């Protein structure tokens, strides 16, 4: 069964979102995880799951529930009531490594020589095949095709000759290459790990005596928790009944090896929710600044500025503010279309775009428009939107994109298509402009990305091929 969202078909997709909580007062973790995952649903819509444990119960008492679908589809009152435990983790998935099957849904739960372990992972491990082979040669048997299971199995193997699970996690993290954010529960501990590059986000929150780990701060807000700080690149945090403890050994080793930080630029351009703050950068403000940078680089005579819902709206507001043009909504988004359970033809895909978005004709008729979006991947959706605007009476449509052109694949957990599906890899901006039917086209300049995120060190490999690993 394949899931298709017409608005998302021509967008990049993130791998997933993770959430973990420890309630030392013994209260149920599952309801908070449910709400946290709901707030992270934008990071993955294919599958989701929750695993919990009672820290006051017998060791090895991890229970879980996971399946294909949205959080609201997979979990109901009965399934949440069955998850008894005050410590737990959750996951929403979009697959980049491993097929879209229930076997690959997370969290992954292992029973091994030293006990039990549950793990949820956001990111992509570039040396997963090498690690998998080594584990298989040692007798490991895999039930899924994900790199996440490679991480979990390696931790289990390392745990057989370390004094605690944190040391096993450190030994495994030393081997991993790529981007990852992990939340892990053993029977008495909640542990969070962030890759030394800082490619994947992870933050810490607090609600009363409870500690929370999440991919984005918006998930903390959803459970009425206070944002404490971002987990540092390379940091391992352990939360127990005694509070929180930070392990900086991987940080120090990364510094000694001169490993730079490289935060994924697309979190700020597109992936993160508008109400999140990530590594001290407010996402909404960053996108407003992106729009202002576009206006400075690509001004045009027009009547109004609009954006593609929802991802282009904040940058469109920034563009309008900078150039003194009015901002208006040109599209109505139908939020109740849902996902179709077919693999669509191109014609069906184009029809689905019309189903998801409709033009407000009274807004655009007779107007010269600046249309802002965060990216052009294949170009198919943008071409459909421009046709819709012109059919509704827009006299000109000038497209501005708040990211540079995609030219190279991503290996760290972002689903960038192969080069033959990236329109910018084989066409000039002028050719793309003609192909999509725009009156002009301007991409964010690579050097202007700093205006979005300040001095934050970035991974921009999908734009410039400078891979941090």
From TrEMBL:
InterPro entries named among the record's database cross-references: GATase_2_dom, Ntn_hydrolases_N, PRTase-like, PRTase_dom, PurF, PurF_N
Pathway recorded for this protein: Purine metabolism; IMP biosynthesis via de novo pathway; N(1)-(5-phospho-D-ribosyl)glycinamide from 5-phospho-alpha-D-ribose 1-diphosphate: step 1/2
Positions annotated to bind Mg(2+): 311, 373-374
Any Pfam family the entry gives: Pribosyltran
Source species, domain of life: Bacteria
Catalysis performed (reactions): 5-phospho-beta-D-ribosylamine + L-glutamate + diphosphate = 5-phospho-alpha-D-ribose 1-diphosphate + L-glutamine + H2O
Keyword Nucleotide-binding recorded: no
Protein name as catalogued: Amidophosphoribosyltransferase
């Amino acid at each position: 069964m394949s899931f298709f969202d017409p608005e998302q078909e021509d967008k990049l997709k993130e791998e997933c979102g993770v959430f973990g909580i420890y309630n030392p007062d013994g209260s149920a973790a599952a309801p908070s995880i449910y709400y946290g995952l709901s707030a992270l649903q934008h990071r993955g819509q294919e599958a989701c799951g929750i695993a919990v444990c009672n820290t006051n119960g017998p060791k090895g008492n991890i229970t879980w529930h996971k399946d294909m679908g949205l959080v609201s589809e997979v979990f109901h009152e009965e399934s949440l009531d069955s998850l008894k435990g005050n410590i737990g983790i959750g996951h929403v998935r979009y697959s980049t490594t491993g097929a879209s099957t229930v076997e690959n849904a997370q969290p992954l739960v292992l029973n091994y020589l030293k006990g039990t372990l549950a793990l949820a992972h956001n990111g992509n491990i570039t040396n997963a095949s090498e690690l998998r082979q080594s584990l298989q040669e040692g007798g490991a048997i895999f039930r899924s095709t994900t790199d996440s299971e490679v991480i979990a199995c390696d931790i289990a193997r390392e745990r057989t000759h370390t004094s605690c699970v944190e040391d096993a996690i450190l030994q495994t993290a030393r081997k991993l290459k790529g981007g990852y954010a992990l939340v892990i529960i053993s029977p008495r501990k909640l542990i969070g790990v962030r890759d030394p590059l800082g490619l994947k986000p992870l933050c810490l929150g607090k609600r009363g005596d409870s500690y929370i780990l999440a991919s984005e701060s918006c998930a903390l807000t959803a459970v009425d928790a206070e944002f404490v700080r971002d987990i540092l690149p390379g940091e391992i945090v352990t939360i127990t009944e005694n509070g929180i403890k930070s392990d900086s050994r991987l940080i120090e080793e990364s510094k000694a090896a001169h490993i730079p930080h490289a935060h994924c630029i697309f979190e700020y351009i597109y992936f993160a929710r508008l109400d999140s703050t990530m590594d001290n950068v407010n996402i909404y403000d960053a996108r407003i600044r992106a729009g202002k940078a576009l206006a400075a680089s690509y001004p045009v005579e027009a009547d109004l500025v609009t954006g593609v819902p929802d991802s282009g709206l904040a940058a469109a507001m920034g563009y309008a503010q900078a150039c003194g043009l009015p901002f208006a909504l040109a599209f109505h988004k139908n939020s109740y279309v849902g996902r179709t359970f077919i693999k669509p033809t191109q014609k069906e895909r184009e029809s689905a775009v019309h189903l998801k978005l409709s033009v407000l004709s009274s807004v655009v008729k007779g107007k010269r428009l600046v249309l802002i979006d965060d990216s052009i991947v294949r170009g198919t959706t943008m071409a459909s939107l421009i046709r819709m605007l012109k059919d509704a009476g827009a006299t000109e449509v000038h497209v501005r994109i708040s990211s540079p052109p995609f030219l190279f694949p991503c290996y760290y957990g972002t689903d960038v298509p192969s080069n033959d599906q990236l329109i910018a890899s084989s066409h000039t901006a002028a050719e793309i402009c003609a192909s999509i039917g725009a009156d002009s086209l301007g991409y964010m300049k690579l050097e202007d990305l700093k205006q979005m995120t300040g001095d934050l060190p970035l991974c921009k490999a999908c734009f410039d091929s400078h891979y941090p690993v």
